[in-house]
Amino acid sequence: MNSIRFKYPAFSRSTALDRLASLSDLLGAAIEDRGYQPLMNVYDDENDVTVEIEAPGLRKEDFSISLEKGTLVVKGQKKGDRKRGVHAERSFGAFERSLTVPYPINASGVKANYENGVLSVVLPKSDEVKPRKIELN
Q: Which of 9, 32, 106, 108 shows the greatest Cβ crowding within 10 Å of its Cβ?
């Protein structure tokens, strides 16, 4: 990734500003190569663990969701046009996010929903780990 540089007469080619611009080019190339990595939030309450993955521009068909041995795995592909441009911040490609849940999960009650660019997966905790009110005799 090359950045557009503006040349100022007051700066020579060996200035710190030019060295910083070169470093920016190197870092930009490293970021560009990492592909698409959607952001993920995890919420834990007494009944459920909820995972939200921010993935705008995808369709429901672009996701693959699985739960095996307490690990939630979300895979997907953000398709896009990799045009060579002057400036590019959007990223595309395959991704995989995983989360190991420290509680037994009721696998038959797992629900997933994709709305407004956010994938929500609700993992209900097994009854054995939910808090219970114990009555005194």
A: 106
